[in-house]
Amino acid sequence: MKPLLRRWPVVLACTVAAAVPVSITASGTGTPSAQAATRQATPVIDPDFLYAQLYDMSKAYSYRISGADGDPRNPADPFNLPPTVNGWQELVAHWKSMLTDQSVNGDLAAFATVTDHYFRRSGGYRFDSDDAEVTIPGASCAGQRVMLAAHPDETPVPTDIVGLIDSGTTSGTTGFGAARRHITDSNLGNEGAYDGLSGVAVTIGEYQALLRWYAANGTYPKRTLKLTLLDASRGKTADGLFSREGSVYYANNLIPAGPQGQYTLFANMDSLGLDYPARHLGTEFFWNNITGGGVGPWFTFINATPTAPNRAYPDSGPGSPGANIAGNSAAIAQFRGNLQAAVLAGFGQQGAKYDFSVPLENPLRYNQTGQAPNPYSGVVPTKPAYSAAEQAQYSPVRDDTAALEDEQAFFDKGIPGFTVSGVKNSNSDENPYAASVDPTRKATPIVGYAGNQTTFQLGNGTPQPGMTTTTAGTGPGATTISVASTTNLAAGQPIFIDTGDNIEYGQIQSVGTGTVTLAQPLTLAHASGVPFYVNENQPQGYLSDTIEHLNYFTGGAPHGLLPQQPTEELKRALELPAEWTSLLLSGDGALGATAQPSAVAYFETSPVKPDTTRTVTFDAGFSRDGAGSTSGLKYFWDFGDGTTMATTSPTVTHTYSSPIYADVKLVVMKGSDTATYRQAVAVDSPTGPPPATDPCGTFSPAEAASVTAAAKRSAS
Amino acid sequence: MTIRGMRKVRRLSVMATVVLVVALASGAGAGQSAAGPTAQVLPIVDANFLYNELYFLGTNMIYRVAGADGPLGNPSDPNNLPTNYNGAQEFYKWFGQELTNPDHDHMGPLGRFMTAKDHVYPTRIWQLDDETVTMPGQSCAGQDALIAGHNDSTPTSTLVSQGAETGSPTPMTRMRGGNWGNGSIYDAGSGEAMGMAEVQALLRWYAANNTYPKRTLKIGLFDNEEGGLVGSGFYSQTNVSTLAAPANAGDTSVRVTSRTGVGFAVGEQLMIDPFGTRETVTITAITNATNTITFTPALTASHVQGATVSAGVADIGGLIPDGPQGQYVMVANMDQNGIEYPARHFGTEHYLNNIVGGGVGPWYTNINAVPLYTTPNNLYDATAIARIQHNLANVTAFRNATADAVSQAFQVLGQKYNFSMPLENPLRFDQVGSTPVNPNPTSVPAYLQSDIPKYSPVVDDNTGRTDQVSFIRDWGIPGYGIIGAYDTSTNPQVGGNENPYPVNYVSKPTLSQYALYDTNDDTPEHLNYYASGTTHGPDGPASPSEGLKRALELPATWTSYLISKDTYGGAEPRTDNPVAYFETTPAKPYLNSNVTFDASFSRNAGGNTSGLTYFWDFGDGTTMATTNPTVSHTYSSNPAWYDVKLAVKSGSTWDFYRQALAVRFVPAHFPDQPLANEPAPPATDPCGTLTPAEQASMTAQASQLISQLSAGKTEVIAKQ
Q1: Helices marked H in A310-355 — which ranges?
Q2: Is the peptide bond before B383 cis (omega within 30 degrees of 0)?
Q3: Exposure check for chain B: N or C terminus, fewer CB within 10 A?
Q4: Minimal Cα distance from B182: which residue of A?
Q5: B348 CA to chain A: closest CA distance, Å?
Q6: Taking Cα atoms as reference points, which of A7, A2, A3 lies closest to residue A391?
Q7: Closest-CA residue in chain B for A160?
Q8: For residue A318, with 0-12 CB atoms within 10 Å meaning exposed, 13-18 middle and 19 or more buried, which class applies?
């Protein structure tokens, strides 16, 4: 192993510093470090494991449509379709199984508990969706939670197909053409390898790295770790955006009132693989060697909680997204510092591992007759990579200004966090063409890389159905837009206007002569000549979000030398954000590390927010003894209304007699080992402030002695 | 002495066949049963083998672009890209290995009689390869039954470069029309795998019955099909036309009779008037509008109208010899299969949806056969029609035999599958979020004889897809190409039968392309999905959906039935004699007199080449005994026919083969008639057999020369 280069000073100003001493990496193959041989400085992603997860899941679980795959509580439901037709149930089951597998993740996986949070998505779905979750309660601050999220589901076929086909016309807006586009805008019979599944695989890899790191050092997370599948993310709104119902459900219903059970970090993984340090098609030459040189690597989006209210998170008064963000600005600022430091540290760590270079794997150049290569004589060329300058250019941490993914529901609450994702289209930063390239050429639409939604398609320079431009500038509040062509535009269609940060989404109310009226006014000004597109950008759709395409767009080959092997560049592109995310999460500002506990006490309630009921179920099944077992545990409850209970059953139900903001306390005992936790529960919409208890859910020494003594008396 | 078994295998009635095959198919090891009291009546396609081969080639050997994967003679050249970038070279090698592999799981013991040969044309950056794998026939090796397919994928257009450089985005759409980064499962991996499974079924059938093909079986990969049937065109090219007008000394151009598939190309040698004043010039231009060929230097003599003119791509010429032997009795071309009967669209009755009033039928199979129409079109011009009509009796018999085989396969597989077909996909897209109405798989009736006219009729080739066209056009060889769905045109002349919408649907939309062939979406998952509505079978990513498996099995089955018929591959009891067979390089040695004779196709009774001794009578008075399977011989520079005879000795047993060879000229090719001064070919048996007297004479001569061979002396030549 090469010594880490000095050009990577530790610039970690914040709490992450302690957890990310980049003087050591543990790649597993190096010489023993000066430190104890068993000590592992940071979590280390196993990229082969990560890719194997992505490969296996994408091959096994097709077209994962939530709410349409039978009762999720019953795998034997005949409506649980085979995984080759709808693999939603099977993917969730696989994910749960992986995260609780100690042979995969090490001993700490014994502390993981699976819970399901069922809800019914809108639109008449027949079965429940599920925000499935795996929880490892923190040892010293279980009351604060860190979430690692991804979405399991893919885009379903819209429900208007019948009418469009049965119209008997071939119209691209009201007939068969539109039906076909809608169908192909779905992930029908597809893997969704890029969108969604890559995020799921990355979270599995991060989780493994974290748990192995704790185990290697004999430590344990301070705070509570949650891995969550935010379900039903891929319905479509009238504006053509993703409806993201699972994250909305979670944020609105599964976060307790406080002060415990709050989220200090939300990390969302989505559409990963087509990001830095990989090159377009594994070559410098995107489509070709455009006059003046090749193109840079893919761009990585790191959309973080904005440090101040913005257009996507406006401050419209108390409780509004912007107000929540402003109210948590200190924590957000600290988080942003930690995030930036972790990304930079991840670059350094990966750079040291890979000698600060990335291979250009694809020898083909598409300016050769019959695609013969420009031969490299067997030597794979490399490009410098992982430098701090490239981090700033290709993986900058930025304010989320779009609010298009599952982070929105959490950022609305002012929770610090980020979504990391690869490219989506060719707007602004991610346009592959060099700055010197003619703007008209750069404007060629190159939409849906790697089947981000469903498909990859090159722009062909001819006006595509429903793709036009504005012919006059508009100001905020405009509803009537002048467009160059109304061909294939129709009432009801979702649209977007403009590019980059100025992009806005909407729905067509009516189409006039050279004008379009929108259902809702625009909020920004838009110049004349900007794109005005129907937000179904595949006039001919192809169901192409496969693992082979993801590899091809990243590394220029559908796989490594064998079909189940990754291209090097895809492996790297998945590994890098996974690595820095695991660094971030391991930091003291996130999960942190503490000594392995002799027992862990933790509970959650059902409902999480019993606003309209006085009967609450308390689930202490998350609690463990020092070995991660639940067997032989005794539970002592103080429900905060003067009632206490001792039991060997992990789950109990208590009915309160009046509205109360209850300070519920739990003592878990096994032999002489005890652990405590408290969480405030707002029962039946109480008035008055929450209990002034520690957000970590800890007790003062006196309180702890008192409640533990009571518990021991009760147990005896 | 070889007394070739001429007794026909007794053919059973269809009904008896069905019963017997079903009994065999239900037992373990069906298709590989040892010869015994119960014969195996018909070949049995191993659908699992077929799909395994398809999945392997389509997931391992990517973007098989012809002539762009390094020099074929040097696999270690750095331009031979890894299989995940361009698997063309590796695919050829693998194809040959699989088809010659005598393992139980591959070809079985008769795989030892298979010989793989490359036929290389230096026409792109690197060579194209028409690879053939050959099993010489026993009693009629001089006639060939060919299974064709193409190995290559659509390359990305080179216009991408220009478009990107100039700023015009238009050519970039051509990028999409390439199979880059793709295994080309549908086009044409499916055809390749079907051909392999057909050969396997035939070889297992022969082995089970202890029989052997009468005629020579060949399976060929024709390169650069995507470039316009290029490889098959090279293979079938005739190399000959005639002067359409007299030519005079001093002329630098000639007008020739319009003939497709000749092989004229700029830069090639043009040989004029071999039996007059033969001249060889170099082509500098070809003007198609006037059928004029310009060349250098100028002619030195005059030439009569009707004199032959010859040229061939890369000066190599076609691979079909011109004499009585080496002729093809049929060609069955496999291409783009799997989305065809009995599979349903997306594995459901409901195509995209339950169109008002009901669903749609199964996919349509295009069986594009040698046409019987007599009006020329852009596929089969007047010359091609004339050649077909010239061979009409065989053409008609072939079409009837094909229809018979289709019918038989429907019956046999219908029995096997209880005349039903599962609908694997329970989704109907009129349901919210694609929730099925009924999650349980259902099935529909299938393999009915009444389905054949609707979904698998043998029809005139109107599409020109794909390589069968070259053989039919240039030689009038009976043949067909089978392909699954490729568009939804409602024009019945071009596969309009495959439009899935009910007749009463007012506006049948055209979908332009199914299963995304010739794009970077041609994957096993897609092919499975279009055929059956599920991305793969229940046994993991490498397992087929039932719909796709059946859709590949059915045409492979009836193709194997067809080839097994007595008119084509045929079957006869295996003798204990060796098998003698040779081919020549060039196949048409019209420019030079030096010819390489390759007898390495020959085998002893066990299918091995070891211990064979070869005796050649080159037909010009020269004989040779040798232990080398491949020899060369130089003929006189005068154009002539030679009756080349080969005797192969293994221990005390012999076998014989003869093939007529035209050297230093290409005979006039029908419908052109030879001038009076062109000699007729030897009047020898098209099967390439020798009379008992000829065999006795060969044996005597051979024994005398062979006795002179020794360890240090591997060739002995004698001249009469």
Answers
A1: 321-327, 329-353
A2: no
A3: C
A4: A558
A5: 12
A6: A7
A7: B430
A8: exposed
- pLDDT-based confidence at residue B168 (cuts at 50, 70, 90): low
- Taking Cα atoms as reference points, which of A525, A532, A534, A527 lies closest to residue A478? A525
Q: Which residues of B touch A177 (CB under 8 A)?
A: 509
Burial (Cβ within 10 Å: 0-12, 13-18, ≥19) of residue B101: middle
- SS3 string, A630-679, reads CCCCEEEEECCCCCEEEECCCEEEEECCCCEEEEEEEEEEECCEEEEEEE
Tokens standing for residue B294: 């310009």
Burial tier of A612 (Cβ tally within 10 Å: 0-12, 13-18, 19+): exposed
pTM for this one? Answer: 0.91
The per-residue b/e assignment along A199-233, b for 16 or more CB within 10 angstroms, e otherwise, is bbbbbbbbbbbbbbbbbbbebbbbbbbbbbbbbbb
A126 part of contact set with chain B, CB < 8 Å = yes
ipTM of the complex: 0.90
| Residue-wise pLDDT tens digits, A621-634 | 999 999 999 999 99
> Looking at the complex, does the CB of residue A459 fall below 8 Å from at least one CB of chain B?
yes
List CB contacts of A515: < 8 A, sequence separation 6 or more. A480, A481, A482, A483, A486
Contact B533 A124 (CB under 8 A): no
Which residues on B lie below 8 Å from A90 (Cβ)? Answer: none
Residues 299-358 of A with CB under 8 A from B: none
Given pLDDT bands bounded at 50, 70 and 90, which one contains residue B28? very low
The letter for the amino acid at A463 is: P
**Backbone angles phi and psi of A420, in degrees to 5:** -110, 130
Cβ contacts of B511 on chain A, cutoff 8 Å? 180
Residue of A nearest to B79 (CA): A375
- How far B429 CA lies from chain A's nearest CA (Å)? 7
DSSP string, A16-35: HHHH--TT----SSSPPPSS
- CA of B289, closest CA in chain A: separation in Å? 28
Q: What are phi and psi of A145, to 5 degrees?
A: -120, 145
Cβ atoms B554, B343 nearer than 8 A: no
Instruction: Please judge whether B535 and A170 are an interchain contact, meaning their C-beta atoms are less than 8 angstroms apart.
Output: no
Q: How far does the CA of residue A68 sit from the closest CA of chain B (Å)?
A: 5
Which tokens belong to A497? Answer: 């206007």
